[in-house]
Design a protein that fits this description.
Blueprint: E1 21-25, H1 30-35, E2 38-41, E3 56-62, E4 67-72, E5 78-80, H2 96-112
Antiparallel strand pairs: 1-2, 1-3, 3-4, 4-5
């Protein structure tokens, strides 16, 4: 697949702050709520998820249909094939997964902390 000139590069040569291909975000996912319909992402992977495990759904795909993101149903867990930590300075929307993670952690702490 990586030798096909029609396929996006999944292991880019550009700096990690540069996008290398587009992904499409799927409906009813957290990632789509954060990033919109499509996003330009960086890419440094040589392997990908073939099928999401039980309890997970596909939340993004590349133009060659490769799974680029999965997320858990009913709890906060993400699997990303791109690196938003390198992209947020030029694309502030890439901070949203980190903000959501932080809020989720605060909520978990408040719910589960012991008093006493």
């Amino acid at each position: 697949m990586m030798d096909n000139p029609q396929s996006p590069s999944h292991y880019q040569r550009e700096p990690p702050t540069s996008p290398s291909h587009e992904i499409t975000l799927l409906s009813n996912t957290r990632l789509k709520n954060w990033l919109g319909e499509r996003a330009q992402v960086n890419s440094f992977h040589r392997q990908a998820v073939a099928e999401p495990p039980a309890g997970f759904i596909v939340s993004a795909r590349s133009g060659d249909h490769l799974i680029e993101a999965i997320e858990a149903e009913g709890r906060f867990a993400l699997g990303l094939q791109f690196h938003p930590e390198w992209m947020f300075q030029s694309r502030p929307e890439f901070l949203r997964p980190f903000q959501a993670f932080t809020q989720e952690a605060i909520g978990y702490f408040k719910k589960n902390r012991r008093t006493g």
